[in-house]
Amino acid sequence: MKRRDFLLTSSAAATAPSSALHAAPEVSDFHTTLKAGDLTAVIGDNSAASSHRAGYNGIWSLHHAKGTRSLFVPGIAGLNLEHLVTGEHLEDSKTFFEPRHAPMTLTKISETEAELHQPPTPTFHVESWTRFRLVAPHYIEMDFRCRAHRDIFPRGYLSLFWASYMNAPADKSLYFLGGLDDQKEHWTQFCTQWHNDQSTVRHRDDQFEMTFPEGGRDSLFKSLSRFRYDHPFFYGHFDDLIWIVMFDRSEGIRFTHSPSGGGANAELKTTNPAWDFQFLIQKPEVMKEYGFRVRTVLRPRCSREEIVAEFSKWKENR
């Protein structure tokens, strides 16, 4: 069932449509609930709804049957398409967060699957499709594809950036197999001290340098860590659960961390970290389709051997 476009004029100012126009409390024209196995996820576009803030598309909330709260900060989101980056137009906030402001539609495909479609955006003219599918007992598959409708890449790249605002985990760290130049395939704990400081981890073979104008705003994607990863997955701890994020490739994939990107949790007197990632396309061609796949796992905590087994099994079967 196709959903209508909902155009945001401001992520702070947009409000939920009236109940008279949208009577269905769970499945509406801008969000829907999916269930499979132990997982319940709300998928939504850029709209505001009740306590959910405008501009936070993706997974509005994610609950595990053995958990007590959403993995993501209430009111915002995980796997939120946040930035389109070409090295230009960084100073205007609305353009900087263009995927959060541009029109987007939601299609519910089944009780376990939904897709977000964003027509060509106003500044970067990038069209995209993001399909989410829940798979029992504890998986979410995310298939992403995009295409550029105009050649506006003066620096020779397009990078897309996803943010996941984690709901005040006691351990703010990401973990992955990698390390420094002389440390290959070491289990590495990655927890930045400040926002926008040494934030982004590249694959061991990633030598591409994103360029930007002199000066300008700081950002997570500008600031590079000395760490490198060797295998395209990371994980983090959340209460008695573990969240694993696995990619179908290393090329173009970068991991990003912020200790406070999701703001503060006043009740727990701590910050909400952001566990993010990027997809970098070099020399993008107009109307050529690009994409990648992600599998996330939300399950009770397990050993590192089991984490590697999850990745290996998915890699073999996809």
Summarize the structure.
The protein has helices spanning 93-96, 98-101, 304-317, and strands spanning 31-36, 39-44, 58-64, 80-85, 105-110, 113-118, 126-135, 139-148, 157-163, 174-179, 186-190, 200-203, 224-229, 233-238, 241-247, 253-258, 264-265, 270-271, 274-282, 290-300. The chain is mostly beta strands and 318 residues long.
Descriptive notes:
The longest helix has 14 residues, at 304-317. 42% of the residues are buried. It is globular and about 50 Å long. It has helices spanning 93-96, 98-101, 304-317, and strands spanning 31-36, 39-44, 58-64, 80-85, 105-110, 113-118, 126-135, 139-148, 157-163, 174-179, 186-190, 200-203, 224-229, 233-238, 241-247, 253-258, 264-265, 270-271, 274-282, 290-300. Strand 5 and strand 6 form a beta hairpin. An eight-stranded mixed β-sheet has the order 4-9-19-16-12-13-10-11. Strands 5-6-7-8-20-15-14 form a seven-stranded antiparallel β-sheet, with helices on one face. The chain has a three-stranded antiparallel β-sheet with strand order 1-2-3, with no helix packed on it. The chain is mainly beta.
- What is the average of the pLDDT values? 91
Separation of the first and last Cα atoms: 28 Å
Secondary structure class reads: mainly beta
Number of alpha- plus pi-helical segments: 3
| Strand segment count | 20
| Strand order, largest beta sheet | 4-9-19-16-12-13-10-11
One letter per element, helices H and strands E, the order comes to EEEEHHEEEEEEEEEEEEEEEEH
Rg over CA atoms:
19 Å
Largest sheet: 8 strands, mixed
Could you outline the blueprint of secondary structure elements for this entry?
Elements: E1 31-36, E2 39-44, E3 58-64, E4 80-85, H1 93-96, H2 98-101, E5 105-110, E6 113-118, E7 126-135, E8 139-148, E9 157-163, E10 174-179, E11 186-190, E12 200-203, E13 224-229, E14 233-238, E15 241-247, E16 253-258, E17 264-265, E18 270-271, E19 274-282, E20 290-300, H3 304-317
Parallel strand pairs: 12-13
Antiparallel strand pairs: 1-2, 2-3, 4-9, 5-6, 6-7, 7-8, 8-20, 9-19, 10-11, 10-13, 12-16, 14-15, 15-20, 16-19, 17-18
